[in-house]
Amino acid sequence: ITVEVKAGSREESVEDLGEGRYLVRVREPPRKGKANVAVTKALKRHLGRQVHLVSGATSTTKVFDVEDQP
Asked: How far is it, in rounded angstroms, from Cα 46 to Cα 30?
């Protein structure tokens, strides 16, 4: 899935934009990977599945791999 990240937001949220695209807002700042960890946790809660960052560690647009349900 492709994720657009808004780090340093007032509220945390996950918005499904359709076609495998999401907008994720997190409170954590985009420093030292804190926002990446927060985005991963938010997606995991929202989707109910494990997610792994594939690319975009230093970008506001990231690609995540979502594991299939067992």
From this structure: 21
With 0-12 CB in 10 A as exposed, 13-18 as middle and 19+ as buried, what is 58? exposed
Q: Helix, strand or coil for residue 61?
A: strand
- Report residue 61 as tokens: 């647009």
CA angle at 50 for the pair 46 and 51, rounded to the nearest 5°:
85
Please list the pLDDT of the chain residue by residue as tens digits (70 residues). 999 999 999 999 999 999 999 999 999 999 999 999 999 999 999 999 999 999 999 999 999 999 987 6
